[in-house]
Write a structure and sequence with these properties.
Order of helices and strands: EHEEEEHEEEEEHE
Structural class: alpha+beta
Distance between the termini: 10 Å
Number of strands: 11
Number of helices: 3
Helix content: 10-25%
Strand content: 15-25%
Bound molecules: zinc ion
Low-confidence stretches: none
Mean pLDDT: 95
Largest sheet: 4 strands, antiparallel
Strand order of the largest sheet: 2-10-1-11
């Protein structure tokens, strides 16, 4: 079975605050009983993740039409990356990168995309943000200001929801990103990736 995930990315969080914000998001989802409080190794591909909780199936308009991702003994956990976060599994799905100044979109295969890939390595290895110049408008912008579809991160907090129904689906009656925004004041970019 191929696996995919929703990723919520906090582009504004500082490295110092990432862990506490990540913990607060998990506590919120546990308090709503959308997650179980005890992490396990069985529900994610590596490390630890939080399994879906008993109320998750209640926030779909028609849960019979959902893939029942919440069933036990599956890869369906929520994994927090409170560290340099790059959404690597989005790369094969990359459609474009957009200049933050002129909004021009560069398709996959463009030289700008190659620079973006290189900047990811610099971020992960050296914790440094490179500057990328736009061939369209000649403005230079930090690599983490470029907007990609799907969002590739280059941030300090990413939370992956493995094999959950896409957050863009109209089946959700409660929006997890909105819930986080309403309770914690964090704006999470919604992204995804696929193995
Ligand atoms: Zn531009």
């Amino acid at each position: 079975m191929s696996s995919s995930y929703n990723s919520l990315i906090d582009h504004d969080v500082s490295p110092a605050d990432a862990e506490s914000i990540g913990n607060a998001i998990i506590e919120l989802l546990v308090s709503e009983r959308f997650l179980l409080a005890t992490p396990s190794e069985q529900c994610v591909l590596n490390g630890l993740g939080y399994p879906p909780g008993p109320r998750i199936r209640e926030i779909f308009a028609n849960h019979e039409s959902c893939v029942p991702f919440w069933e036990p003994n599956a890869i369906n956990g929520v994994k927090v990356h409170a560290e340099r976060y790059v959404n690597f599994f989005a790369f094969p799905q990359l459609q474009f990168a957009g200049c933050p100044q002129c909004r021009h979109r560069f398709p996959d295969g463009d030289g700008v995309i190659d620079q973006l890939y290189d900047s990811v390595a610099t971020f992960v290895n050296d914790d440094r943000i490179e500057i990328i110049s736009c061939p369209q408008c000649n403005h230079s912008s930090p690599s983490n200001a470029w907007r990609t579809e799907p969002d590739i991160g280059i941030a300090y907090l990413g939370i992956e929801f493995w094999n959950w129904v896409p957050f863009s689906s109209p089946l959700w009656t409660t929006s997890i990103p909105d819930l986080i925004h309403d309770h914690l004041g964090r704006t999470m970019a919604v992204s995804w990736g696929k193995l």
